[in-house]
From TrEMBL:
Keyword Zinc found: no
Classification of source organism: Bacteria, Pseudomonadati, Bacteroidota, Flavobacteriia, Flavobacteriales
Family recorded in the similarity comment: Belongs to the SusD family.
Protein name: RagB/SusD family nutrient uptake outer membrane protein
Pfam families cross-referenced by the UniProt entry: SusD-like_3, SusD_RagB
Signal peptide boundaries: none
Keywords, sorted A to Z: Cell outer membrane, Membrane, Signal
Location of the protein in the cell: Cell outer membrane
Stored PROSITE patterns: PROKAR_LIPOPROTEIN (PS51257)
UniProt domain RagB/SusD: residue ranges: 353-478
Native source species: Winogradskyella immobilis
Source organism superkingdom: Bacteria
Length: 478
């Protein structure tokens, strides 16, 4: 399902999104006259998804004048900041991340932070107006809004560490609200808030009927990943087994179909895009190509990832990377590229590659199966659990690889790397497994970069610190 922009003055407001920092709607009358019934509240919920989708910038602005690209820039921190991806030749879209020279002024650092808080603002706006919802829909509306708010906070806390906790609409003309808006709180407090939102959503009456809106399985999967991040393996295992037992999801037999048959059986939660309007399309897949889009060649495979795919990718490799036709020896990602032609094994570029409708997959069933094996492993070095082997080997066998009889931590990391390459999991996986510093230091040394341990957290955006007038503080090292 694609969600069109909602052109209502109310929703044009950006919290923590511009230098004048005004969370007050441009028309108080619009606020007073909106959210009066279920239809208007639903429009507000769809607008949260719109914020997560981001706004594909218009031609000529390069994306730098758009503060809300949201997940469209996430690949820079999720993949290029790891040992998976690089730029073709110093592309401005990601070069700071490739070389571990990210600064508080780096464009993606700023727009991603602002985008997540914009999503949180939209969710809070809905949550504060649920008094006008019908009794039959109020719990579902609240569950959906709290799921999306929790997802935004989960992204923020993993990438930036301690962040401000905003659980209501703030008026920063009031000193107390201004302090709340810019005061960073401890990660533990943020995680408790996320868990509270997601636990409510688990019991909020959601089902598994949608792939592009909140579903029970989407909530359970994200909550399980939260628990895995915190080392609470039993809670994660139970949630993942609920997703598996639902019977609503399965691995696609053909890996290609995961990305080019949208809302397929494997997709649990995706962000929808449309290929007819530039404002509802995505431009990031064009950035993965050479000489098109906002950047050029900005998410190429590292030599290390190419080797991993050649050794362990199996049937996935041809639909994960291809050799750049114009730059032999360099490899592009083919996941999410526009207009595929599986019959001849090529991916042709449309006349305007920045108008692409490929949905972004946040999580899918293969992710669930590998997380399930990780939860059973529970931080140990290896396991022979039949349940873990069943989940782990289902992913391998789909790729045409031999099943394993023993699962190790390294095998799970290796399998997640090749199965989920370019899906923005790698950097966060390395952190969750506790090996990010070791892996990235070795990768950096081998490629003449200068990774340092403090770079496991992104810097707090410099413009936000300036706006806060000294209230918002910076992460160490930046």
């Amino acid at each position: 399902m694609k969600f069109k922009k909602i052109y209502i003055v109310l929703f044009s407001i950006v919290f923590l999104g511009s230098c004048d920092l005004d969370p007050i709607p441009t028309s108080a009358i619009v606020v007073d006259n909106f959210f009066n019934n279920d239809d208007e509240i639903l429009a507000g919920i769809i607008n949260i998804y719109d914020g997560l989708q981001g706004s594909n910038p218009l031609e000529g602005d390069g994306g730098f004048n758009n503060p809300h690209l949201a997940i469209q820039v996430e690949y820079q921190m999720g993949e290029v900041l790891s040992d998976n991806a690089r730029t073709k030749s110093g592309s401005p879209q990601g070069f700071d991340f490739e070389t571990f020279t990210v600064l508080p002024q780096t464009a993606a650092v700023i727009t991603y932070y602002r985008s997540m808080y914009n999503i949180i603002f939209r969710a809070n706006l809905v949550l504060e107006n649920l008094g006008n919802a019908s009794e039959s829909n109020v719990n579902r509306f609240e569950a959906e809004a709290r799921f999306l708010r929790a997802y935004a906070y989960f992204n923020l806390v993993r990438f930036y560490g301690d962040v401000p906790l905003v659980d209501r609409i703030l008026n920063t003309e009031e000193e107390e609200d201004r302090v709340i808006a810019f005061t960073r709180v401890n990660e533990d407090t943020i995680y408790n808030f996320i868990i509270d939102d997601l636990e409510f959503a688990v019991n909020g009456g959601l089902d598994n009927s949608s792939r592009s809106r909140a579903s029970l399985a989407a909530v359970q999967t994200i909550l399980a990943k939260v628990y895995l991040t915190l080392g609470q393996y039993g809670q994660a295992q139970g949630l993942l087994e609920s997703v598996i037992a639902s019977g609503d999801y399965s691995l696609e037999p053909n890996f290609f179909d995961v990305f080019y048959t949208e809302a397929n059986n494997e997709t649990i939660f995706s962000i929808g895009f449309d290929d007819t309007l530039v404002n509802d399309s995505q431009g990031f897949s064009a950035e993965f190509l050479d000489a098109v889009g906002r950047g050029t060649g900005s998410n190429y495979a590292t030599a290390e990832l190419v080797e991993a795919l050649e050794n362990n990718g199996g049937d996935r490799t041809q639909f994960t990377i291809r050799e750049d036709p114009g730059n032999p020896g360099l490899f592009q990602t083919v996941k999410f590229l526009p207009i595929p032609d599986p019959n001849v094994g090529t991916f042709t570029v449309p006349s305007n590659p920045r108008i692409a409708g490929n949905d972004w997959i946040v999580t899918r069933y293969a992710d669930v199966l590998l997380l399930h094996a990780e939860a059973i492993l529970a931080g140990a070095d290896q396991t022979t659990s039949s349940a873990a082997l069943e989940s782990f080997n289902a992913v391998r066998v789909r790729a045409g690889l031999d099943p394993q009889t023993v699962i190790t931590r390294q095998l799970i990391m290796d399998e997640r790397r090749v199965e989920l390459a370019f899906e923005n999991h790698r950097f966060l996986d390395l952190k969750r497994f506790g090996v990010a510093q070791e892996v990235l230091a070795a990768f950096s040394a081998a490629n003449s970069h200068d990774f340092q341990a403090f770079e496991l957290l992104l810097p707090i955006p410099g413009p936000e610190i300036a706006i806060s007038q000294g209230v918002l503080t910076q992460n160490p090292g930046y």
